[in-house]
Design brief:
By secondary structure, the protein is mostly helical. The chain folds into 2 domains: 25-170, Helix Hairpins (Orthogonal Bundle), CATH 1.10.287.1490; 173-232, no CATH class. It contains 4 helices and 4 strands. It has a 4-stranded mixed beta sheet with strand order 2-1-4-3. Bound molecules: zinc ion. Zinc ion (ZN) binds at residues 192, 199, 201-202, 204, 223, 225-226, 228.
């Protein structure tokens, strides 16, 4: 009985495609995870900028209330000036008033500097929000493409498995079991064509006697080196 190498080769091709498709499918969740991480990073930048602006607003409120307190104190001192009885008291009050005014000037400078940085932070928020929007748009497209590829690959895999199930009964069980044994042992490649008198997979030269037997296609012959099922590749015209 001739060995039907075509069917074994077809089985090998199907197995290879099933493995490739499965590997592709397995990689999709981590790709989606990566995309989510990138969006998360952009979101964080926006959040940080917003936290900065609320800190800035709080600083301004604190400074302003401090200024208000000192102003109140200073106006009390000013009132007291009318009632002092000694020169010492008078000059001591004047000193307090001067110090209060100095403190107010310093605080107001700080307020201005907080206001200036508020402008910068507002710009930062705008820029980061724009970037987030762009990232979300870009990555939602990428995610959609991945989901589509996922569905396509699932379908493809189902079809391939069906095809394999249809094919298996057409190959003698002894051949498929040998195929499977070699497939598992040899990195998922059970067959190797002989090209220019060499085993294509391991590059071992095939003896002339074996070459003749291969051409007869009457039995399964394994490569003496890598153990794969050899088949004769008809020379292309
Ligand atoms: Zn070999």
């Amino acid at each position: 009985m001739d060995i039907e190498f075509n069917k074994l080769i077809q089985l090998q091709d199907l197995d290879k495609e099933i493995i490739d498709t499965s590997l592709f499918l397995e990689g999709i969740p981590s790709k989606i995870e990566e995309i989510n991480k990138k969006i998360e990073q952009s979101t964080q930048i926006v959040t940080q900028a917003k936290e900065k602006i609320s800190q800035n607003q709080k600083n301004r409120r604190d400074l302003e209330s401090e200024v208000k307190d000192i102003k109140e104190k200073a106006s009390k001192y000013n009132l007291q000036l009318n009632y002092v009885k000694t020169n010492i008291e008078y000059s001591s009050l004047l000193k307090e008033i001067k110090e209060a005014q100095q403190k107010i000037d310093d605080l107001e400078e700080e307020i201005i500097s907080e206001m200036l940085s508020a402008d910068e932070i507002e710009d930062e928020i705008k820029t980061s929000e724009q970037k987030l929007k762009e990232a979300e748009e870009k990555y939602s497209i990428e995610k959609k493409i991945l989901e589509q590829k996922n569905n396509e690959s699932e379908l493809k895999k189902k079809g391939l498995i069906q095809e394999k199930e249809n094919l298996l009964p057409k190959i003698p069980a002894s051949q498929t079991s040998l195929y499977l044994k070699i497939f598992k042992k040899n990195n998922n490649i059970a067959l190797s064509p002989v090209k220019d008198d060499f085993c294509f997979m391991c590059h071992m030269r095939v003896r002339p006697q074996v070459l003749n037997e291969l051409k007869e296609k009457e039995k399964l012959i394994l490569c003496e080196n890598c153990g794969r099922i050899l088949y004769w590749l008809e020379k292309q015209p």
